[in-house]
């Protein structure tokens, strides 16, 4: 009887302890779910799936990259050991010897379960945005891989995946229509918006401009996509990337672990930190070029091809000196811009290369820098505050730099007739600047290219080649602008004699 009572007591006590353990276990699970931030959980699922399909995902989000630069959230992180055996993954180089990351980049052998152990999420859980931007590379993720990756996220985690596709614009001039994946947007629609839902946007980057840059396709959401994002509380204005096509400097991506997530970082990150408007990209319309050359056969004579070679060399040199060494923006203008827009080529009978700059960017160092690089100044017209125009000569090819003045409702540049001192003014509608690929060079053009061209050459007249173009009377936007006083000519009309060679 005593043994039976004792056994019964043991059973009751065991059941009681087991019940306590189950309750405690449930409380721990509930606490873990509460502590596991939505943003981290979604990124954890995505990065695990990316590892499954060997897709390198790297951070391109401006907010996150700015915090990474500050380095104040991973002070105890360690750099990769100097003898750590790094390998190339999918042909992309990952390096540890970079000062930029020396204070906070670390790599851990553990899986993406670090957060569940340490409960520390310092970067991805800041909660300042409902959106995280990541990037990957087209040569690491085929269209088939995109489908498998998306299906994995749907089947294993119940996530909603929006895959955007577009026509490869680089092949349109060959009349080849190939659909390519461009963006992946991932949301967990099971999360209540009141619990801080999150959206992850992955950009698929493609090589452009002779493989030296990465290209982002435009973001084109349909009404259903917009509704999904709206239900997540995400506004269109919260996208910290341009909706238009964009261009970025190609860079290395480094492998690391942040907040327990295996992820990659761009080095250097400068291109991803510039304002969105500074990255907009416009393709040359090659179908329009083909139509033009069907009506006006392309000049392929030795003289024409020689001009193309010299003009490309001169534009390349100008880009190096102005853009890279002086850090000043310029853009294709006048006949060079017309050639780009109409025929994706130089106008071989134009005889020069034309570019534009902002007048308030003028520096005397421009003249000195061109001179020491064997591109001497041959003409100086106007003053920095009025109708400035500079001409340089490389071999026998002239480079004209037109300086533009910004008024409240329009922009303008000036011209001067050397023998009379007469001044001319060319008015343009206000414009912004975009990037393009012109003859294999990444250069700027007015984003509003057509209105710029129409102002300078007429609404339909720009389509017709003209060899009798007169810069003083032919442009529709030219206006008389007074005359330089003869006492000013020594300052405003400088014709520099060239030494006999």
Automatic annotation (TrEMBL):
Q: What is its main location?
A: membrane
Record's keyword terms, sorted:
Membrane, Transmembrane, Transmembrane helix
Ribitol-5-phosphate transferase FKTN N-terminal domain location is: 108-311
Database matches in InterPro entries: FKTN/MNN4/W02B3.4-1 (IPR009644), FKTN_N (IPR045587)
**Transmembrane intervals:** 6-29
Give the range the annotation lists for the signal sequence.
none
Q: How does it sit in the membrane?
A: Single-pass membrane protein
> Does the keyword section mention Transmembrane?
yes
Pfam families this protein is in?
FKTN_N (PF19737)
Q: Where in the cell is it found?
A: Membrane
Q: Which PANTHER family match?
A: FUKUTIN-RELATED, RIBITOL-5-PHOSPHATE TRANSFERASE FKTN
Name used for this protein in its record: Ribitol-5-phosphate transferase FKTN N-terminal domain-containing protein
Q: What is the lineage of its organism?
A: Eukaryota, Metazoa, Ecdysozoa, Arthropoda, Chelicerata
